[in-house]
Amino acid sequence: EVQLVESGGGLVQTGGSLTLSCVASGFTFNDYVIGWFRQGPGKEREGVSCIRREDGSTYYADSVKGRFTISSDNAKNTVYLQIDSLKPEDTAIYYCAADTYYSGSYYWELQPYEYEYWGQGTQVTVSS
User: Reduced to 3 DSSP states, what percent helix, strand and coil does the chain have, rounded to the nearest 5?
Assistant: First the structure.
């Protein structure tokens, strides 16, 4: 079955960096998308970045552009999210998710409803 496992979260000082990992398994799809989302306490999930398997295209929410970098290592079946210049408002549980077919719009690929499979999440806490 499809499985996504996140890791790499932790407690980091403001201005620090962190790299999250998402190991994916069980995929037999051709044009799927892996997205990163985050959810703070009492807040809705927010899409921050995604990467399309077919061509490697990436997309970022305006709020994180310039600080977040998504990448993939196909040999390791892993997608990474590097976060630089961390801010307290980045504090959240970070999830990776899989959409089995690209919707045709990267904007829509930052919406949680597009995704069928989700990992369990990894906590990122940024202290001042």
Answer: 10, 50, 40
22-72 per-position pLDDT tens digit: 999 998 777 899 999 999 988 999 999 999 988 899 999 999 999 999 999
Closest CA to 107 of 56, 47, 54: 47
Q: What is the pLDDT averaged over residues 102-112?
A: 94
- Burial bucket for residue 76 (CB in 10 Å: 0-12, 13-18, 19+): exposed
CA 128 from chain centre, in angstroms, equals 24
Amino acid at 103: S
With contact defined as beta carbons under 8 Å apart, do 97 and 115 qualify?
Answer: yes
Cα–Cα distance, 73 to 65 (Å, whole number): 21
